[in-house]
Amino acid sequence: MTDVQGKWLKLHQNGTGPGARSSHALTIVGQKAYVFGGEFTPRVPVDNKLYVFDLNTLTWSVAEVTGDVPPPRVGVTMATVGETIYVFGGRDSTHKELNELYSFDTSTNKWNLLTSDDSSPAHRSYHSMTGDDRHVYVFGGCGVAGRLNDLWAYDVVDQKWIKYPTPEDSCKGRGGPGLAVVQGKIWVVYGFSGVEMDDVHCFDPVVEQWSQVETNGEKPTARSVFSTVGIGKYIIIYGGEVDPSDLGHLGAGKFSGEVYGLDTETLVWKKWEDAPSLESHPGPRGWCAFASGLMTDGQQRLLVYGGNSPSNDRLDDIFIFTPFVACN
């Protein structure tokens, strides 16, 4: 018999980091985490600096960049393929939804604007983005005319966008969904569609077919704007908004601080024990920046930075979650 568990660790930070913010993005390349975008005051982008956190020395720096530097934005996403970071969409200081795709070469520190025309996905913010060894995937978000449920892939080799079939009405347009690639399939988890959602959908890119997935076990409550990563056969989610604020994005709403894992083979949810009473636990929050990456010991972990708190204060702390499976 096996039991899934995990452990949080709060990381000390050296140097000057991004500071408190939410609605920002984070990705990991090697032993460095990169943070871009976000807000401190609701709907007001903070800056367009690219912050770098060395996971070995726990030290922040600001990358000295060249090229087509993206303007400041909130509700932006990032994903990594190899040593290249990809940034898509978001919302600017005039509240305009954006659709540019940028790349950032971590070996040269150069930004490049790749696409910004009709070949790109529609303008959006608060969408989700993930990647595999050849593609970055974009799903959903808040579009110019409402919430979206479309799925796109950018092929980094052929340097072109691929639009996949749109799911049926059961997968409603949504903002703040979870998105993960696990065992060759693309999974859409929960999100906000006027109400918090608790459905799971799966897309098989080989046969280009969607399916709604019925899950069981210790199913998480409906939520959006949570941290989502695929590790092994599991989709791991942390936190998120479980009850929206009456003030919309200007308010905090109610947040979760729990970690759940979905076994994509058995389709069973399990609440992962993570000692929420300890100071090393990040507690309830949403709108965080997050990513998974391999650490020096070869273990894949979830990294979470900042976000919004139940008191509507932006956060500037950083935590790492290590999952493991114990045999009883």
What can you see in these coordinates?
A hairpin with a 5-residue loop joins strand 27 (289-294) and strand 28. The protein is mainly beta and 328 residues long. Strands 6-10-9-8-7 form a five-stranded mixed beta sheet, with no helix packed on it. Strands 11, 12, 13, 14 and 15 form a five-stranded antiparallel beta sheet that branches. A five-stranded mixed beta sheet has the order 20-26-25-22-21, with no helix packed on it. The termini are close together. It has a single domain (8-321), classed as 6 Propeller (Neuraminidase), CATH 2.120.10. It has no helices and 29 strands. The protein has strands spanning 2-10, 25-29, 32-36, 51-54, 59-62, 66-67, 77-81, 84-91, 97-105, 110-115, 124-125, 128-131, 135-143, 146-155, 160-163, 178-182, 185-192, 196-204, 209-213, 216-217, 227-231, 234-238, 241-243, 254-255, 259-263, 268-271, 289-294, 300-308, 314-327.
Any idea what the CATH superfamily is called?
A: Kelch-type beta propeller
Average pLDDT across residues? 94
CATH C-level category: Mainly Beta
3D shape: globular
Main sheet summary: 5 strands, mixed
Report strand %.
over 45%
Radius of gyration: 18 Å
Here the CATH topology equals: Neuraminidase
Structure classification: mainly beta
Keywords: Iron, Kelch repeat, Lyase, Repeat
InterPro entries: Kelch-typ_b-propeller (IPR015915)
Pfam families: Kelch_KLHDC2_KLHL20_DRC7
Organism: Durio zibethinus (Durian)
